[in-house]
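> forwarded from #structure-qc
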């Protein structure tokens, strides 16, 4: 994991290392058992932008070298764009869209994905107010009867309030849990 002077670092306490160094140690521990999959849950949250970029580059190198699969859990679309091949978008504890990364950015199929992408500020555009999704996510112990996103969805219609949509095939490799994609209509 490119830790400088590992023979002395091995005896160091965590408070004697930088945040980036601690992250590398965590990564080293994770890959030391030669796993086939690494679950990286918000792996760069505490890092500044420069260290984050270095750490992600390091993870990518390790992934290629070891033939690892890495499952990123993140809310950062920059990481998704740079690191991922396939994306699963989750809402209210459920996958609502699954797609190859480029397809997701080019043609999001679920209204929640569309709204999330709209929420990313465009630094080239001057706006009075940034976009945000109205409403709040539902409590997981009291999910709405139909589609969980319906109370916040601009495309919601009567059927959405009654039945939770299954996953529909939208394009090769892309699926979305939204009644808009039900080819049988109804
Ligand atoms: S099923 Fe209906 S409410 Fe749910 S995301 Fe699709 S259009 Fe919106």
């Amino acid at each position: 994991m490119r830790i400088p002077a590992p023979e002395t670092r091995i005896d160091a306490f965590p408070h004697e290392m930088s945040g980036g160094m601690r992250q590398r140690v965590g990564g080293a521990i994770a890959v030391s058992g030669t796993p086939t999959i690494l679950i990286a849950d918000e792996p760069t949250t505490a890092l500044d932008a420069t260290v984050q970029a270095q750490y992600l580059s390091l993870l990518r190198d390790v992934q290629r070298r070891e033939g690892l699969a890495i499952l990123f859990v993140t809310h950062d679309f920059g990481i998704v764009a740079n690191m991922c091949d396939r994306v699963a978008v989750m809402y209210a504890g459920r996958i609502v869209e699954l797609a190859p990364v480029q397809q997701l950015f080019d043609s999001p199929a679920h209204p929640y994905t569309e709204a999330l992408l709209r929420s990313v500020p465009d630094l080239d555009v001057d706006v009075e107010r940034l976009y945000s999704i109205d409403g709040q996510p539902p409590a997981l112990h009291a999910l709405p009867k139909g589609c969980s996103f319906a109370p916040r969805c601009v495309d919601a219609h009567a059927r959405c309030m009654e039945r939770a949509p299954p996953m529909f095939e939208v394009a090769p490799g892309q699926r979305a849990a939204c009644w808009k994609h039900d080819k049988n209509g109804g």
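QC bot note: Residues 49-66 form the longest helix (18 residues). The helical segments are 6-9, 19-32, 49-66, 77-83, 101-106, 111-118, 158-162.
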